[in-house]
Amino acid sequence: MATRQDWLDEGLTILAASGAPALTIELLCERLGLTKGSFYHHFRGMPGYRAALLDHFETRCTTELIDLAEADPHAPAAARLERLFDLVGSSGDSPALEVAMRSWAQQDERARAVQERVDRRRTDYLRALWEQHGGEEPETMARLLYLVLIGAGHLVPPLTFAQVREIYDLALRPHLHEKERSR
């Protein structure tokens, strides 16, 4: 028997592969090899499922990553930033998931509200880390780092995380090493 988590994880997989219109009870049941009764055991129809899926996306792709990056809140900001990059790169989520979420947000108010909250939380965290590091123009740097990640997924084909990491290194290394030398 599939858990609520299994249903939500499969929904993110479908979303990344085929977009929000493909999220149907029938496809979910087919992919999991289960009946509609199992679906309704966990969710009160498709609207409830979609709301839970949006919450799951926010938790898995933002809250959990930030919490893991903050596992050692006394670590230097640069170390937490590096940890965050590593976590994003090893999360296993494809850039297609971010693209699909943004597409969904263009057509659905609830998805839009979640995407706005996710974007705000992510950029606020990047800004806070850059401020703690003592970097200049933290708002601009947070936007730059975030835009590189989001934009990389929209290229055809999307950049690999290794390619995104090279861009981050180019943008950040002079600032990170400059701070280390001045200590």
From TrEMBL:
Keywords: DNA-binding. It comes from the Bacteria. PROSITE patterns: HTH_TETR_2. Residues 24-43 bind DNA. Residues 1-61 form the HTH tetR-type domain. Pfam families: TetR_N. One of its GO terms (molecular function) is DNA binding. InterPro entries: Homeodomain-like_sf, HTH_TetR. The keyword Transport does not apply. The keyword DNA-binding applies. Gene3D superfamilies: Tetracycline Repressor, domain 2. This is AcrR family transcriptional regulator. It comes from Planomonospora venezuelensis.
